[in-house]
């Protein structure tokens, strides 16, 4: 689901999605997810530098819908250029905030390489902390949610000499239009459940720590998941309930039952929670049914719950600790 420091791209959960979900993940990783108007003539504010080369390309279309971006004319600018095409009236983005946004990115020559609109889902990413390209960090801190911002990022504010082959060549100047939707919650706000945890499951900490996954202690002498899916809420929230068709905003961590090998961790990946349809990760639709936003849930998923092509990879089963931040 936009997070890339040092030229890396934004990432969404890697190993667990269904084939369709993995395709969406690969698309998200093309950018920025690095890990987005009124009209081209919109009276937006311009925070561009004094660099006279390469004015930002014209943009048309209304906020909340995929814009049309003209290709760049002449030589691209050598410095970061930012233009607010529509000023929002929501809270300002602060350094370290997790921001939910729609965006589209293209090369200076007009070739599009990524679009959250094509995936029909906004992306969530952390701003101002090196989790995304420098151009995003520098252009979006201080912007109000509800704004549409055009960013022209030269190579040193994007992916540099190496680029992101095959879609982004080395030394590419990139053009983005970003619709800042909202500041996303980054931590659950529920209360620990006052009862012993299920002994069939690994022991997961109920402590909520900023930017850190909970600890998971695997049971001694048990090298595989229970035969059937098992889930338990260990931190109880009071928000909206998860349904079979819900998309959740989540932080999660996952380990293999055998040996406790770390398989995924959104806190370590990009620092920002991810928006994930519960039907896309094996065991989540059943394991999270009825869970309320603000909760932490432990889910043990046996091998048989995974698609056939993934069963060899997860032959001993997987345990997830899932923080449900929001439900859509």
From TrEMBL:
GO MF: peptidyl-prolyl cis-trans isomerase activity
PROSITE patterns: FKBP_PPIASE
UniProt feature, compositional bias: Low complexity: 43-60
Enzyme class: isomerase
EC annotation from Swiss-Prot or TrEMBL: 5.2.1.8
Entry keyword set: Isomerase, Rotamase, Signal
Domain of life the protein comes from: Bacteria
Basic and acidic residues bias locations: 67-82
Signal peptide range: 1-44
Domain PPIase FKBP-type: from-to ranges: 96-184, 245-304
Region described as Disordered: spans on this chain: 1-23, 43-96, 187-228
Catalysed reactions, as listed in the record: [protein]-peptidylproline (omega=180) = [protein]-peptidylproline (omega=0)
Cytoplasm as UniProt keyword: no
Similarity comment: Belongs to the FKBP-type PPIase family.
PANTHER family, alphabetized: 39 KDA FK506-BINDING NUCLEAR PROTEIN (PTHR43811:SF19), FKBP-TYPE PEPTIDYL-PROLYL CIS-TRANS ISOMERASE FKPA (PTHR43811)
Protein name per Swiss-Prot or TrEMBL: peptidylprolyl isomerase
Organism: Streptomyces qinglanensis
């Amino acid at each position: 689901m936009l997070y890339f420091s040092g030229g890396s791209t934004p990432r969404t959960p890697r190993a667990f999605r269904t084939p369709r979900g993995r395709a969406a993940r690969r698309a998200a990783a093309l950018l920025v997810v690095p890990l987005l108007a009124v009209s081209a003539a919109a009276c937006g504010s311009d925070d561009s530098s004094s660099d006279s080369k390469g004015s930002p390309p014209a943009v048309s279309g209304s906020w909340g819908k995929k814009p049309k971006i003209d290709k760049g004319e002449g030589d691209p600018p050598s410095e970061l250029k930012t233009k607010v095409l529509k000023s929002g009236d929501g809270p300002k983005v602060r350094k370290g905030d997790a921001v939910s946004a729609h965006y589209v990115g293209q090369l200076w020559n007009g070739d599009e390489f990524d679009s959250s609109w094509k995936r029909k889902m906004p992306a969530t990413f952390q701003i101002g902390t090196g989790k995304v390209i420098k151009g995003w960090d520098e252009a979006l801190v201080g912007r109000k949610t509800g704004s549409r911002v055009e960013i022209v990022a030269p190579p040193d504010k994007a992916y540099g000499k190496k680029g992101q082959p095959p879609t982004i060549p080395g030394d590419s100047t990139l053009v983005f239009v970003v619709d800042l939707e909202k500041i996303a919650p980054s931590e659950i706000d529920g209360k620990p459940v006052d009862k012993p945890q299920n002994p069939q499951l690994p022991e997961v900490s109920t402590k909520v720590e900023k930017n850190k996954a909970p600890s998971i202690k695997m049971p001694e002498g048990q090298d595989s998941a229970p035969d059937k899916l098992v889930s338990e809420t260990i931190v109880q929230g009071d928000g909206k309930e998860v349904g079979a068709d819900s998309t959740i905003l989540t932080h999660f961590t996952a380990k293999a039952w055998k040996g406790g090998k770390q398989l995924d961790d959104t806190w370590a990946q990009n620092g920002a929670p991810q928006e994930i349809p519960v039907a896309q990760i094996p065991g989540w639709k059943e394991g999270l049914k009825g869970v309320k936003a603000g909760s932490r849930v432990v889910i043990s998923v046996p091998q048989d719950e995974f698609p056939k092509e993934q069963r060899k990879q997860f032959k001993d089963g997987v345990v997830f600790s899932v923080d449900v931040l929001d439900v859509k």
